Amino acid sequence: MAVITLYYRYLERLVGSDRETILARLPMIGSDIERVEEDHVDVEFFPSRPDLFSVEGVARAMRGFLGLETGLPQYHVTPSGISFSVDPGLASIRPYLGTAVIRGIQLDEEAILSLMGLQEALHWALGRGRSKVAIGIHDLDRVTPPFRYIAEERTRAFVPLDYEREMTMEEILDEHPKGRAYADIVRGFPKFPLIVDACNQVLSFPPIINGELTRVTGESRNLLLDTTGTDERAVMTAVNIICTALADAGGRIESVDVAGNHIPTLAPSTRLVSARECSALLGADLTPAGLSLLLGKMRFSAEPAGDDKVRVMVPCYRADIMHDWDIFEDAAIAYGYENFRAELPPTFTIGRAHPVMIVASAVRSLGSGLGYQEVIPFTLTSEKVMYGKMQRPVAPETLSVLHPISEENTIVRTGLLPLLIETLQFNRHRELPQRLFAVGDVVRGLLTFQKAAFVSLHPAADFSEAYAVADAMCRELSIPYTSEESEDPAFIGGRRGSIVAAGRPIGVFGEIHPAVLNAFELEHPVAAVEIDLTAVPGYPAGLGTP
User: pTM (2 decimals)?
Assistant: First the structure.
């Protein structure tokens, strides 16, 4: 989820309403207010709405939702006369380029912060950490068109952003903070992507860092946008979102000639939807005219097209509209969720707790009683986290994702302990001690069952602490067990043990190996326990058994 900072003064100016009205209605467009400060509010939006990741985008949506400005926003694009060539050598490296010129922009401090926040949020939501899409924004007046997007030798040098000396691209990957953070994206290529102007001056080394030459400041009036990546649709979506945000901030958008194509067009797309289908889904009686009015509040252009159909023009920045039901969801938002009549379901049943949940509830009570805090890790993870960093071999029955959306989500978790240690990594700058536990589903092959895991991070964490937690778990869960020496490479030899019940190993405990701590960037010892809950008496027969 993306958390966006909205500065009141800038937001009120763009919306044309006061902050009290905006804050009262903002949650009803699908957001969650995280915190309200004196000069700004932090708001969380779903990743499916990257057009709302800026003050300009939120203001545009709120003007429609409040009825101040309805219908399709109009964005005019004129040719800039500037061209951008793409080196064929980039086809196997980073082939797609999106670009635009923005003129006459006046960026105050709050507008610059909004633009920077939008750029980073898009890197996360669309760019998958810049691997899929990376965005550069440059002061156009400091460089000379035409521009070239080329595959360059790794020894090429320029002054990167926030530095005063020239560095080769290899040095940037090793020494610059951004280079170290994103080096893995390009390290394996024989040449690196580079954007240069007619004088061979460097604008950008995508997806790593811009050049200091084209730094955008409050004095910048004309901008050049570049977006590069491996997914053409995502690249063009980023162009549309940034251009429309800058247009709403007062800029004039001009297209750039890229291999004969003028980018961007900012043209809307058209869909034909059914008012009857929308009414049936929402439980509201909507005519084509009524549906058109609702969609106008959500910044679509909509008009009746017969007794049932509505012709809808979808703004170029709405990349989330992939099905008619996406439009119907916006109609529901405009209708107002508070206006839907609450009804009891036609059937009524009385449920009882599933035996699996009874066991999980007992573990939660135990964890809280031992002074641990529960976390809920994601179900999807990667081989790197689950096995590589843990020094464990990949389990043969690991269930892989057929079409993963990122390198971080390639398998279904087979355990909870690696994810808890990863959580410690995310919170390594927080105060100590940190004691966390998790209980939930894991998958082995096509079999789903439950595990529980505990981790304790502090300078005195040791084998004794892990053994005490393992013993307390087994005793309180009525598991008759014995302990044996373990061979688990995630733990330190001589400071690790296996939990054995009914003749089979059901868990492991001990002190995490220093190599694992280094892999997760942890500086203090970690005592850990993980146990298979199928060994708990009363666990449903047939669930989780080998």
Answer: 0.71
